[in-house]
UniProtKB/TrEMBL annotation:
This is Sugar ABC transporter permease. Residues 51-266 form the ABC transmembrane type-1 domain. Keywords: Cell membrane, Membrane, Transmembrane, Transmembrane helix, Transport. The chain crosses the membrane at residues 54-76, 88-108, 137-162, 183-208, 247-267.
Length: 275
């Protein structure tokens, strides 16, 4: 197991970083060019747009997924009738691939025969919903599709955390006269720290590697208004035949993950002081 990690993870990471400093085109090249690939990367309008798009998508998607997922988990935690059926309905979209989800939502948001056409046929001729063609709104169209697929999974994870809360906590809160919503926010949520962190890591990893949903729904368009880093990497490595540029972008994505994870790991796993 240790050798597998060393060879596959550390070895491939080192290979990626090394060749990002070369002028590799379709095949790896050992000719070092320093930071030239990174200079080209950060001066590339397409890359800068993809970073802005993934940040917009990531922040919006993460906030809404966690909030809506938690509210659904609270709803399911009320021991409602047909809970299994509701849980299956909410979780079912997660079983679909992002390609299927993207195609479905592309049809729904298509102005010619989707939601806009349906509402206009009901007599609301001024209604418009053309986000896939709107440069300013296309990222939020991706967010809607991502929420539809991922919220049910977040709900299930948080529901498992809620079901792990000792019933005595609820009894004590009721005895003290604490409103239910305050109990959830100030008592239950802090006790679910481990589940919440795990959920954030899972959702965050999905955001970083966002690719197939974009390809299925928008192909990065209109223009480059929905371009994302993973698609940039793929296009340069396999489409443009510029291996060095693709690996430079990959290395920046990897560095971003480390910048986020390392401080969290230092805080989460540091030895607890005993006073």
């Amino acid at each position: 197991m240790i050798m597998t990690v060393l060879i596959v993870f550390i070895g491939c990471t080192a290979w990626t970083i090394f060749y990002s400093f070369t002028n590799s085109r379709s095949l790896p090249s050992g000719e070092l060019v320093g930071f030239d690939q990174y200079t080209r990367l950060f001066s590339n309008r397409r890359w800068n747009a993809s970073v802005l798009n993934i940040m917009t998508y990531g922040v919006t998607s993460l906030c809404f997924t966690m909030v809506v997922g938690f509210l659904l988990a609270v709803f399911m935690d009320q021991k409602i009738r047909f809970e299994s059926a509701f849980r299956t309905v909410f979780l079912y979209p997660f079983a679909l691939s992002f390609i299927v989800t993207g195609l479905v939502w592309q049809w729904i948001m298509n102005p010619a025969f989707g939601l806009q056409a349906a509402v206009q046929s009901w007599g609301f001729t001024s209604f418009t919903f053309d986000w896939l063609k709107n440069r300013n709104m296309v990222v939020y169209a991706l967010v809607i599709a991502g929420l539809w697929q991922g919220t049910g999974f977040v709900m299930v994870l948080l529901l498992a955390g809620l079901r792990g809360i000792d019933e005595e906590i609820w009894k004590a809160a009721r005895v003290d006269g604490i409103p239910t919503w305050k109990t959830y926010i100030f008592v239950v949520l802090p006790m679910m720290r481990g589940v919440i962190v795990t959920t954030l890591v899972i959702v965050g990893s999905g955001i970083v590697r966002l690719y197939d949903l974009v390809v299925a729904m928008t192909q990065g368009g209109p223009g480059i208004s929905s371009e994302v880093p993973a698609k940039y990497v793929y296009n340069y490595m396999f489409g443009a035949g510029n291996l060095g540029q693709g690996l430079a972008a990959s290395s920046v994505m990897l560095l971003t993950v480390f910048i986020i994870l390392i401080p969290w790991m230092l805080i989460e796993f540091r030895p607890k002081s005993h006073s």
